[in-house]
Amino acid sequence: MVSKLVSHFCPGLRIVLPIEQVLTELLQANQQHSCVVLQAPPGAGKTTRVPLALLESPWLHGKIILIQPRRLAVYSAAHRLAQQLGETPGHRVGYRTRYDRCVSEHNRIEVVTDGIFLAQIQRDPELRGIAMVLFDEFHERSVNVDLGLAFALEAQQLREPDTPLRLLVMSATLDGERLSQWLDAPLIQSLGRSYPVATHYRPIPRDRYPDQAICDVIEEALRREHGSLLVFLPGMREIRSVQRRLEESGLPDDLRLYPLHASLPKEQQQAALSPATAGTRKLVLATNVAETSITIEDVRVVIDSGQVRVARYDERRGLNGLHTEMVSAASAEQRRGRAGRTQPGVCYRLWAESRHASLKAFNDPEILTTDLQPIALELAQWGVHDLNDLTLLDRPPTDRLQRARESLRQLGALRDDDTISPFGRQLGQLGLPPRLAALVLNSQGSAVQEEAIRCAAILSEGDPMRQSADQFQADIHLRLGQLESGGPQRIKNLVKQIRQRLPKVASPPQQLTLSQALAKAFPDRIAQQREGHAQRYLMSNGKGVQLQRNDKLSAHRYLVILEAGGSDTEARVELACPITLDELKQALPNLLESRPAVYWDADRQAVTAQQQQRLAGLVLHQQPLPKPWPPEAQARLLAALVDARLEPLPWDNSSRQFCSRLNWIALQQPGAWPDFSMNTLCQEAQQWLLPFLENRYSFGELAEVPLLDALKNRLGWERLAQLDQQAPACWTLATGTHRIHYEHNTPTLRVRLQECYGLQNHPTLPGGCPLTLELLSPAQRPIQITRNLIAFWSGSYAEVAKEMRGRYPKHFWPDDPASAKPTTRTKRSMGG
Q: What percent of the chain has pLDDT over 70?
């Protein structure tokens, strides 16, 4: 059956592809199951053979949709399918991309990008007239493919039993078993078609610029190998740099050099894909668009830089940016396989063989790495709030999804309950990211509508200007000026499409500047110049950005940040628009907030209170707030006190001794007394100290705080009486009362030795703990420390007295101190 099928579609074609060995099994599975998984390595023929086999299946009634991850893959697949039918696109095979379409009522197979399919299923959730959807290259795991499959699985439930919707998920490298189990679908596996490929590792030397090292390997391959070459580079910048170096060094006469990336016009892309003319060979410098779904004729040499540019959302900076990363092992193998599609080939890898084992196995799913704002709008448009209601292989982080929904609420796309608003539905119909759609719709009917459309096209398709780093200017107006005098065709095409898609509504004329239209679309990226730093700005989302050194936008205090990137902590501004404060206030009145702001001024060691007008994290205007200040002022003072370990409080001997007494008795009776250590006092300061800070706003105003009363209040008056009994503050002798020192958890009585005369028992606290006596000389210097006064009297006292008589002859040093009368006087004043 298969050989007849291939012969029927491809007269004269004798190439047999590995997929043909499993086509019968695959078609039976598709007929019997609503969803099937096909795992087929590169070169198996799944893209070009499977849709044609399905086309003639008698049980399949309706159109077949073939989803491709890129526009270039759509063009390539559609032409190859039509060619095998002996047709050109537009008959049984049609295609649709963002910028181009070739469709008719005769189409049975329609090749589309994943974005086109997602918009189609949002418009028609039942996919009426569609019999089958093929998700090709599912392993690339784009957001649109993940969501498109989840929505298609729900669309199956909307169909009548006699008109089922069938799904086929095709993957080259993803774990087929996991995919099969997740979808509860049968797995069909095919071998790949590939000739042997010799692999050479050429790590880039540290003393060589990467683009020069790549050129070195290209020149080596040109000398050693025959056939055409395909070089994988991370982006357009690297393609231009390598192309310039090669052209400056001189290319062989028989070599034709072609760049290949998504931004090129279709004609230039087709030139790169076409076979080399007789007597020549090709050198194609490509991004990862050449990795899957397309065939570049005559290539037998692949040079892989090992790098890819990936869009990732940086949570720390609050921006989506392009990051250059090492490829996954699966992508590296896909690239290598391009050298062995038609004959034995060679692959040069520009990294060390030892590093290859550390590559991650597969690409990260885009749903886990990208800005979730477009995803949140798609989910709302579909009517899903809880992600658990969707069949998703990977789920985005809940906290990031909530922040994305909040940003959509700011745009007016979502209601407070996260359901989509009428404005949000309009955003979804423009085929642009939510911000850019909001930019266009908000400017509709204004004098800047055309400028806003062009801005949206530029931001969607990428900066058209090429500038050296030292002369870089981020002003969006420079790009608009370039577009008026020329500019890339892809941007002009998108401008035309946006105009066509705008809803025809009678909008009253708006008084709106371009800056205001951009501010409405990027309210979380309004940037305010930092004091004393002309190049550095703080955005309303709380993240920092910086202009390049010579950027003239630094003359403006406020900017709307449209694009930013780089690897620094503060993102580098790549596109921005200046805006005045008045324009800002007029554009976003519903986001402005007037509120008191209380903060701690470390230099003044005082609380400062201002009435502020804010736009999220930006202070647009402020003035002193009259007293009395809100309770937050005392809280700020308290926080500063805690940071200073309560030292600014008016600690005196009484308050310190009070805490020492409590800490000592807490050690004697564990668990029976509250903790008065400094750590605990700091931790519980709000409970015991805050009430005593009323109407105080600085460290300088703390002198009158009744600290001892506050500490006693924390203990409670009932426990205070117990404390006085069990850990008294003082001890009374015949000569007077003396304070007991509880520092270092050793109760100590510091007293002159003569005042202890006559004591025949050692002073002991009620709990039985003997006081440590620090016996002082008449000059208040320690002469003896003891915890057994009676032993001292009968022991070393005699030697001490002998020495003291020599030093202090005017004072009384009896031979029998236990029987002597205590005194604070000299012998003369005692009358002796």
A: 96
